[in-house]
Amino acid sequence: MKSSANRRWFLKSLALAGAPVVCPTVEADETDGHESGATSSGTMGVLMDITQCVGCRKCEYACGQAAGFNVPPIETFDDRAVFENDRRPGPASYTVVNRYAAGESPERFVKVNCLHCNEPACASACLVGALQKTATGAVVYDPWKCMGCRYCMVACPFQIPAYEYDNAFTPQVRKCTMCADRIANGARVPACVEICPKECLIYGRRDELLALAHDRIRQHPDRYVEHIYGEHEAGGASWLYLSDRRFADLGFVAVPAAAPSHLTETLQHAVFKHWAPPACLYGLLGAIMWLSRRPDDEPKTSPAVPTMPPRLKGAVS
Ligand code: SF4
Ligand code: SF4
Ligand code: SF4
Known about the structure:
This protein has helices at 2-17, 58-67, 121-125, 151-155, 180-184, 191-195, 206-219, 262-273, 278-291, 310-316; strands spanning 44-49, 96-102, 105-112, 131-133, 139-141, 162-163, 173-174, 201-205, 239-242. By secondary structure, the chain is α+β, with helices and mostly antiparallel strands. It has a domain at 44-250: 2-Layer Sandwich (Alpha-Beta Plaits). A hairpin with a 5-residue loop joins β4 (131-133) and β5 (139-141). The radius of gyration is 24 Å and the shape is globular. The protein starts with a helix and ends with a helix. The structure holds iron/sulfur cluster (3 copies). One iron/sulfur cluster binds next to α2 and β3.
């Protein structure tokens, strides 16, 4: 515990001091938040069909078990009183199920967790590459790299990462891992997917899940809204949702399709990885501004020496 605290103090000190070293070459590497081979089409994901969920919360139980949390007996998850208030994932619960009721319409349940974005803002914001989009599609967290700045929490458009404020010595950022360890150890599917009695969670390749979701909408246009949440939001995500209600009525935030600039992200990680001096950073940012300038920003003429406006020329002479 002590060594971890010292490591964070050391990293924070370095980040603030900005040790001057050689200007880095810009390259996508293991700290740019995207491991090589991680493409949105080849990655895995989960499709939740909200129309099939009955709110049993067994997924919450299985998730807590898989994560090694201190989970109460499964019967306690039958308690419907928790639906009185919207809940958010927390440091000891990677996923929660919320209920939405609207007049005479049947109630709907939404499982909330990290969406494992294709271009995760949390990873973009992390100065030390503690969050990574892996080749499987999962966005995973390395507590040994984390310096506790919590920029990821600010950056996430879905307000997912939670922080262990109660842990005085080794606090970590916590969020759904898409069961990356469990899958790496041979499990076929995430724990929440496995336990779901209604099979409303489907684990598979993201492109195949999208094809399945589009097919369901095509086959049952009276049953589903024509929107797959996560297909485009924030640049797309590994976790996808099908619904028969407008997502805005089910607690989903309206997020633009644009993802953070990959160029800026790569530069940021390269700069902070090598602790480049501020002048180098300003030079890089200036280069980005110059490269991204609009055509009408170009000067119309390129005089060799500064000239005086004609009206003032006469006044001086
Ligand atoms: S939902 Fe938030 S925490 Fe999860 S990958 Fe996207 S930006 Fe990161
Ligand atoms: S994928 Fe794994 S970590 Fe994520 S909510 Fe499901 S069980 Fe929990
Ligand atoms: S286990 Fe399945 S049916 Fe039960 S609440 Fe979770 S997603 Fe819904």
